[in-house]
Structure formats: structure tokens, C-alpha cells
From TrEMBL:
One of its GO terms (molecular function) is endonuclease activity. PANTHER family: UPF0102 PROTEIN YRAN. This is UPF0102 protein NCTC13560_00889. Keywords: Endonuclease, Hydrolase, Nuclease. Pfam families: UPF0102. Belongs to the UPF0102 family. The keyword Nuclease applies. InterPro entries: Restrct_endonuc-II-like, tRNA_endonuc-like_dom_sf, UPF0102_YraN-like.
Length: 123
């Protein structure tokens, strides 16, 4: 596995730990539908939370959350709709982004952006 894949996996694992410590119930990881993949689907406060994890080794060029393009949002929303139908969920859905970046000492810093985008942002 390439080192960037290892870093991405580590970032997702850290995001899951962060979410669990903050009262989120993890429903599924790496949910796939057609060309789309949702990193984490969780539940909290009777909401389904769809979480995109973005990790970068540096924010020199772009912040991790800026890498979530309209095309990516459209794929995530499509997969989220499929998840809701497949598992017969009728709760409200919120879309979050968790960014993971190293600080100057190399420690990984997590930023949780709640309600980062809405389904109609994909249009």
C-alpha cells in the first residue's frame, strides 16, 4: 500500500476515535455505491451524519476541506441517498468534513467541520 494510503487510513482511524469520544455511533466505514465512497457514516442526536475525511501532509497548497469539490459532493450525496434507502433510514442527514493535518511538530490535528455542505450544494 502506498504511503499516502497509509496516511489516509490512519487519518480515518483517528477521525473514528475522535467521533466516538464525542458521542457519535459509527454505523459504517467506507460505504461504497457505484463510483462513490463515504468514509464514515455515523449517528448522533437522531441524525445520520455523513463524514468525509480529508488528510494532507501540508496545507501549503490547499486546505483539506477545500479538496471536497462539487463533483465529490455530488457523489457523496448520491451514496448517502442510497444508504438511507438501503437501510430504511428516515432521519435527517448532515454532511460533515473532518480534516487531518500535521502541526509543526508532526502531531496530527483534527478539525471537525459540522454541516460542511448540503445536498443541494452538488447542483
Amino acid at each position: 500500500m502506498a504511503s499516502h494510503n497509509d496516511f489516509g487510513k490512519k487519518a480515518e482511524d483517528l477521525a473514528v476515535q475522535f467521533l466516538q469520544k464525542n458521542g457519535y455511533k459509527i454505523l459504517v466505514r467506507n460505504f461504497r455505491y457505484q463510483k462513490a465512497e463515504i468514509d464514515i457514516i455515523a449517528e448522533k442526536d437522531n441524525l445520520i451524519i455523513v463524514i468525509e475525511v480529508k488528510a494532507r501532509s501540508t496545507d501549503f497548497f490547499i486546505l483539506p476541506q477545500e479538496a471536497v469539490t462539487k463533483g465529490k459532493i455530488k457523489l457523496i450525496v448520491t451514496a448517502a441517498n442510497h444508504f438511507m434507502e438501503e437501510f430504511n433510514k428516515d432521519q435527517e442527514v448532515r454532511f460533515d468534513i473532518i480534516s487531518v493535518l500535521p502541526d509543526e511538530k508532526g502531531n496530527l490535528i483534527i478539525e471537525h467541520i459540522t454541516d460542511a455542505f448540503e445536498a443541494f450544494d452538488a447542483n
